[in-house]
Amino acid sequence: MKQITFITFLFTLTLLAACNGEQATDTATETTETSKETLKTMLELVWESDTLLSTCESALYDAASGLIYVSNINENPWEDDGNGFISTLDTDGNILDLKWVEGLSAPKGMGIADGKLYVSDNSSLVEIDLSEQKIINRYEIADSPNLNDVTVSAEGDVYVSGSASDAIYVLKDGQLETVIEYDFGRLNGLLHRPEGLYYASSGSSNFGILDTKTNTPKVLASEIGNGDGIILLDNGDFVVSSWKGQVFYINSSDWTPEKILDTEAQSMNAADIGYVTGKNLLIVPTFFGNKVMAYRVVRS
After folding, report:
1. Residue 71 near residue 107, CB atoms below 8 Å
2. How far is CA 78 from each of CA 14, 120, 270, rounded to the nearest angstrom?
3. Measured distance CA(130)–CA(268) in Å, rounded
4. CA distance 239 to 61
5. Contact at 8 Å (CB) between 128 and 154?
6. pLDDT tens digits for 50-78?
C-alpha cells in the first residue's frame, strides 16, 4: 500500500512539473510576442556639423574613401545661379573641404559609380571625377524636369528622379533616357535594389517600389510626409525622410511607418538622408539649417 502511495506521489510531481514547464514556455512565447509588438525605434544624436554649409540638401557616404559628400544648393533650390557646391566631411562631422567642387547651381541627390560622383542639378545630371576633383560631363534633359534624387545599381546604372516631370531616368550611352512617367505625386527619393527601385514622393506622401522588369509601381506605405531621402539599414529595414523635418522608420516585414524624428517646430528640415554603414549613423541634412546631423538608430 505504501509503495502504491509513493508511486502516485511521484506521478503527481511529474505531472505538475510538466504543467509548469508548459506554462513557462507559454509565458516565454507571450513575452517574445509582446516584445516584438512593442519594439520601438529611437534616434540618438551623435554629432552635428558646423553651420558653414549652405542649404545642404543631400548626404552620401563613400565607403571607399570614408568621406561623406554633402550637396549645397546655396540659397534658391531651383535657380540656375551657378553658386552651388559639394562639401566633404569625415565620419565625425568635421568639414574637410567646404567647396570641394564648385560650379553647380542647385545640387541635390548624389550617387557614385566607377570613380565618378553623379549629382542632379535642376535640368542636368553632373558627372564629377572623384580623383581629379572636377566636373567632366553634364547630361541635359529638356522641359525643366526638376531633377532630384540619384541612385546607382550594383551594375553601375545611374538613375535620377524628376520631381516636376514625375519621371525616372537612367543614364545610357551618354544620354538620359526615360524609364517611366507616372503619377507618383511629385517623385523625389530613389533607392535601387535587386528587387526594384524604391521611391518616395513628396506630394502623395507614398513610399513604394517600381518593379523594373514590368515597370509596375506599387505603394508599400503611405503618410510619410513630404517624402525625400531613402536609406536601407543594415538590418534590412528602411528609413525615409520628409523634407519638412520628419524621419520615418519603415519595417520591411509589414511596411508600417513609425515616426522617429520631428524637427519641423524648430524650423529644421530633413532632406536627402545618408547612412554610414558599419557605424549605424544616419546623416540628416537640415537644408536651410545649414548643417548635417548624425544620429545612431536604436531599436529596443
Report:
1. yes
2. 77, 11, 18
3. 30
4. 15
5. no
6. 999 999 999 999 999 999 999 999 999 99
